[in-house]
Every structure is written in C-alpha cells, then in structure tokens.
Amino acid sequence: AQTVTQSQPEMSVQEAETVTLSCTYDTSESDYYLFWYKQPPSRQMILVIRQEAYKQQNATENRFSVNFQKAAKSFSLKISDSQLGDAAMYFCAYRSPNTGNQFYFGTGTSLTVIP
Amino acid sequence: DTAVSQTPKYLVTQMGNDKSIKCEQNLGHDTMYWYKQDSKKFLKIMFSYNNKELIINETVPNRFSPKSPDKAHLNLHINSLELGDSAVYFCASSQLGGREVRETQYFGPGTRLLVL
After folding, report:
1. Chain B residues lying within 8 Å of A108, measured CB to CB
2. By the CB < 8 Å criterion, does A57 face chain B?
3. Helix count and strand count (H, E) for chain A
C-alpha cells in the first residue's frame, strides 16, 4: 500500500515569514494525485492545494505553493507571508486511481504562527 | 450551501449504547467515505462507498456498519460503543475517475464522539 510520511510533527513560523512543510510518499504508480489539507482547531478538513502527478508545473494557490519532485517522491508545501489564520494541522494526502479512489494521509504537521 | 454535512456535530453517550452518525453530500459525487481521527490526530479510512456499493472496508470492528441508502448519503451505525471508539469521525465525498476538481475529497465538519 502507498505510504505518506510527514517527518515534521510540529513547525513554527513568524507571522509574515515563509515556512515549508515536507511530505514524502512511497508508490510504484506513475499517475496519481497529491493534496495538502488544512485542519484548524474547528477540526474541519479544508483543501489547501492539489497537484496532479502528470503535470510538471508546481501548483500554486495564492500564498500556498508546492514543490513537487516526482523522482524523489517529495511534495512539500510552502506558505508565504504566513498569517495567524494559517495556524492549523496540515495533512499531506495521496490519491491512487487504482485502489478504489482511496486517499492515504500522512500523520500531519502542526503549524504554529507566532505573532 | 453546505457541500458535505454531518449530524450530529457532537455525540456523548454511554458505553454499550448504539448510535448513528448521518452524512449527506449535495455535490453530486458518486463516492463517499468515513474516516476516524483519534486523539493523536491520525486520520484513518474506515469505509468507502461508490454508487451505494462498498469498495473499501478497512479493518474495523464489525460493530461499525455503514449504510448507503442512496449516492448522496452514507450513514455510520455503531453498535455496543466502547471507550476506544471516542474520536472525531469525518465523512467525505469525491467523484471517482474524474480529473481536476473532481479528484478532490470534500470533507464534512466532523462528528466528535465521546463514549463515557
């Protein structure tokens, strides 16, 4: 089965600074999808950004961007100009088109934003 | 409009009771999921239904039984609740086999279950 690893249980960043959250995954598939989800204290899971493996260009959503390294099986999330509202748990997820649409989640990184 | 809704939001109950959590999505998706998030925030998939058919059934006690009356609903029934069932349960939906936005899972707000 695919595995998703987030090696940073906790991270902190000063407000307005940039932080990068790391994610690696293990797969033998060539076509798949990667996601970053945000879970604030409200517990709701919110999609932050999405990357299709067949696209070489890194996805960007406003202050959020990814560094997708397919050969290295790495999918890091960069948050620029960090805001207090970015404080949350961030989950990296892998979706396989071959296992019934199942998503595999990492264990999460808790991000603290320091005013 | 709420895309994926769950009821109830909070559920406090005694050990041994039977309870249900309801989930509804209005996105027209054909696949729905139940996840369990424990106190350490680990998110584990429990079940997945595609067009009302069970396609993923991870190793969960058979006290947990999903029911999908139609594509827009996936309810979770739990029999003989135990202390270890205390967690946050998330429902989610997606469109199987699609590209772009349809590949994304949309989560409900979660249901906090506390078993006393």
Report:
1. 41-43
2. no
3. 0, 12
